[in-house]
Amino acid sequence: MGFLAQYNKNVIFDEIQRVPSLFSYLQTKVDKDKINGQFILTGSQHFLMLKDVSQSLAGRIAIFNLYPFSLEELKNEHLQEGDVFKQIWIGGYPRLFSSKIESSVWLGGYIQTYLERDIRTLSQISNLRVFENFLHLIAGRSGQLLDMLSLGNAIGVTHNTIRSWISLLETSGIVFLLSPYLTNLGKRVVKTPKLYFLDTGLMCKLLEISSHKQLPTHPLYGAIFETFVVSEYFKYISNHNTGSRLYFWRNRDGLEADLVVESGIKTDLYEIKSSQTVPVDPFDKTSKIRNLLKQDGKQYLIYSGKEKQNRSQGIIYPWLETPML
User: Fold this and answer.
1) Which pTM does this prediction carry?
2) Is the pLDDT of residue 295 over 80?
3) Does the CA dihedral 305-310-315-321 come out positive or negative?
4) Among 29, 173, 279, 299, which is most buried by a count of CB atoms within 10 Å?
């Protein structure tokens, strides 16, 4: 408290998760001074989820999650690539744009730093090599249903270990989980979610894709492109605090909407195609799902091409012009 007493306002504490004991002192000072915006706390992990933090600061703090740059942010600064393969391969980590460093070099260092610093801080994982193998493995399963038993069997750990590791990756902003959309709200949290990486540059690095030129013929390009689009919407909703919610929809017959965006009483359906040409019947799946759901909303198709098209059933958007929510 003696240290904090020297500062009355506008103080920034970086890497706050390294000194979790500071939270209790901050709570006392904030309650005493009653000054809004007195402190800015930054950290490389979601420090409110750290087990060593005893004070939640509930009601005293506003939380902002800073993710890799979104396509919208890159476009605003004229930093986006005109080539979809280059954009996906580079990703959106800020250091790549501020220092002009080679993306594959920086991402390789980031993975090692993440393993050696952040993971050791967050968890008691003893075998980092197994955890690194796990990272490479799930990079190949981005956009798929999260099968923790299968993942555990593949690397020789229990599904409970996989569950804790997925939680670590969510905490540190590496992946996010997309829940299935069901008309029964109570079932949304118990059905199997999909896992997505937040940054396709990191995903490509873990998949050992050494150049954007490898993407057009890569067997996982469809999943990589889907990850790119879905993560863009995830970042947009977070950055703008729209209140919209993201899901996917799938039935037992294999009929699927890659993305469902729920905004109030409106439910929009998205088909995501990695091809650079528009399918013959672009809204076949989403129209069938719309008839099943019987809910109001629009239909979209996002693809790797360059031309926007307005159709009677919905709108087709190129990757560089994805519709804002």
Assistant:
1) 0.89
2) yes
3) positive
4) 299
**DSSP structure class, residue 116:** I
Q: Which amino acid makes up residue 316?
A: I
Domain ranges of the chain: 2-49, 71-321
The rounded distance, in Å, linking the Cα atoms of 166 and 319 is 28
Q: Determine contact, residues 208/224, Cβ cutoff 8 Å.
A: no
Say how far apart CA 46 and CA 176 lie, in whole Å.
13
- The residue-averaged pLDDT of 234-251 equals 91
The amino acid that residue 208 corresponds to is E
C-alpha span between 77 and 58 (Å, rounded): 35
Burial per residue of 119-139, b for 16 or more beta-carbon CB atoms within 10 angstroms, e otherwise: bebbeebeeeeebbebbeebb
Give me the DSSP letters along 153-173. Answer: HHHT--HHHHHHHHHHHHHTT
Residue type, 195: L
At 75 the three-state DSSP class reads: helix
How far is CA 128 from each of CA 118, 125, 206, 313, rounded to the nearest angstrom?
12, 7, 15, 50
